[in-house]
Amino acid sequence: MVLKQKEIDTWQEKLPLLKRIIDLDPVVWLNDDRRKMSVMPTMPLKMQDIKEAEQLWHRFAPFLMKAFPETNGVIESPVQKGQNLKSELDNYFSSAVDGELYLKCDNELPIAGSIKARGGIYEVLHHAESLAIDAGLITKQDNYERFASNRFKAFFKNYSIGVGSTGNLGLSIGIISAALGFSVTVYMSRDAKQWKKDLLRKKGVTVQEFAGDFSEAIYAGRLKTNENPKGYFVDDEDSKHLFLGYSVAAIRLQKQLEEQKIQIDENHPLFVYLPCGVGGSPGGITFGLKQVFGDHVHCFFVEPTHSPSVLIGLLTGEMERISVQDFGIDNHTEADGLAVGRPSRFATGISKHLLSGIYTVRDEQLFKILALLYDNEKIYVEPSAAAGIIGPWNVMHSNYLKQSNIHTENITHIAWLTGGGLVPEAEMKQFYGKGKRLIKKEGE
Ligand SMILES: *Cc1c(COP(=O)(O)O)cnc(C)c1O
Q1: What is the atom index within ligand 1 of the atom nearest the CA of 274?
Q2: Three-class SS state of 360
Q3: What class of enzyme is it (predicted)?
């Protein structure tokens, strides 16, 4: 459904920012709906749900240790200081921002090499546990190493799992489902990279390719999977379990910041910049961080100028009922993890009360930042994952600080590096080379 020009004009009159979004200009939008903590009790989830999700991860630690020894039983990533990168970018943008820059390296997450390891693996483990308990195969007190046994694999073989994906969610769901023994099918959208399909097929996953975009892949996958009474569809457009899996990151991050003696309080605010597709991973993490740090944390989402799905959903108030294509925006971006035209219903309903704002970024900018990240910190990420890095420079120059009365000297900025761990070296070199060429051209 593309809106008629007259309807688009009416929206634009009401919302002046919309014109710049449709023109594909990078924008910074501040969320006026952001509420203080008093709204929390009405949320569909609570801190207790996050704690229970963390306990599920604990129960599965022996399984993870057995099936994926490289995890040591825990799927977590390091936080590190990005001091060289910060100096470089202060220079590059000719403006030094206050505070320190840290990088949350989800590109190093084991098994899936992206933030999808948090939500995707959590949802599949949750489903596997429910099936095994219902069948009387296990109780929550038992040692979950048994999930790696042939007996369990034979049991799960009768059940199927489906997922629609632009790539990374498919990798995470596909790899963990196949390891447990499920029959798993990944419905891939047109943006999905060839190497991701090849890798999944090698792991025994069925890959169905679609000419359409992410929403179409989800739609087809949902229909097909639900035809089977023993089928389970991981629905990125509306999943509470994905959301909870992501939210656990907040309690882990709290502990890491404590260990590094990084204080977060009224005079030491935390700013977090999260690349956003359907809004599930940034939404879950924002929800968790708000539970942990309350008003002292400020979360910003980042979307490509060609795929501002959550931005348009929130700005118009139409949420998942409207897509970027409705406004004539093409949803074509090299940031394949963010190539989403329509926001998640579940996640966006929560985020709208909590997030501070959204900014958009051009693809060329992502490649340049990706190259600068490697040059200064020796970290390789995929284009989607570079989106959070420019957050401090974007947000510090907006009206946000004035509106919120924030002391800037002590800010801890965290750019969430959301993926890139499994990208083949040749592909990564191409990303890097492209970034370097763009930077050089700019200097001429
Ligand atoms: C999926 C993904 C995101 C965004 O997560 P959503 O839940 O879709 O908002 C960000 N970065 C990467 C690398 C991803 O794969």
Answers
A1: 10
A2: strand
A3: lyase
